[in-house]
Amino acid sequence: MSASGRNETADDLLAALLDGMDAALCAFDAGGVITHWNREAERILGWSAAEAVGRHGFAGWAVRPADAHDVQDRLMSAQDAPGRQVHEFALLTKDGGRVLVRTQSAAVPGADGKPAGVYCAFSEVHAQIDLERSIALSEALMDDASWGVVLVDVDLRPAVVNAHAARAFGTGRTALLGRPLGELLAQGVEELEGALQHVLAEGAPPAPVELWVSVRTPEGVRRRCWRCGFLRLGSPLAEEPVPLGVGLLFQDVTEARRAELDTGQLRFRANQLYRAGRAAAECEDPAEAAAVRLDFALAGFAEHALVDVLERPGGPDSVRPRLVRAAVSPSGMTLLLPGRGAIPLRYEAGHPALQALDRIGPVRSSSPRGEADEAWARARQWPQGAAHALSTVLRSRGRTLGALTFLRGPSRPAFERADALYAEEVAARVAADLDLAAAGPA
Description:
14 helices
């Protein structure tokens, strides 16, 4: 290929590169004559390359006469200044309108290293400001926003994490990158991954979603409620929408949700006590009334209730307490008080029911791993499948009558302090019924 052919190819390549740029670009020689003008410059100002190339600066056509000298001096001063210079000024469009542009100009060195001209890239100020705002927003979100922000790639692995999200996960920002969500969450990972996959496939849901997750932290597993918003991220450079991942924005609302749950739980339990009192009032037999109260108490609270009464209620402290099983609920049967000669339970020392008698207060216990342990339940003479227990004392008229034990399975959480308070309230009412049943008919 001849030298002229190579030059023509290079010129064509340069023209194609300039026309394909997203920014408007023009170039001046050392004398200020325009040598290059791309299509984005034509789109913004309306002047074609044929109309622009060869003109001396912008005077007389693309700038007001009063501004022409100042604009020319500011543009050409880039030849004598290191690096890039940024300016803002108003240019004229072909139809007579005005456009405020922001320019970046720099010197173009010649073969001898001396300035041979200036190139100038410019864009409409509002477009530039929109870009800067987008960048500023991204940096602010990724720095320390009040919401956790996690950008997840198409493989559902964190790619970018802000400081708030890192604190929520209890680790550093870089430690989260590229790790599967299953390594970060002990529970709730299926729900979160399902939501992310839905967003990738069909787009973001119309409203925030609340998810309960258990986060693995160096201090242990923490149960949290996150109010999540999702954004599908697509490439702005592709002809077809290509998903790059999902933006997850979340806020920890655990305390608010727990407060709501506690309020709802208190309301429900108070209603159950009220309904149990109304139903017990219709029972002629006080023992039957006690069984009714237990059935109402179990709803939403536990799977089983065990009533163990003392062989000799209110006996001297020197006598080791011996308990006799009176009822196991739910059974649908009336609670029966054991008669003389009933065989006492062979509870080992340290049994929760015996501890409740000693403390005259509630005792909570769980199997070693919080799971159903047949040997653990059998050793305590509890139904199979028990994983959590709450024993409290039955007292009436200043006397200890026995112990009431509630049992939960492994699918439910361990008993908490609020549960113990409710159990004590139920026990007080059941004890009053048992005391009345033991007294016999008036």
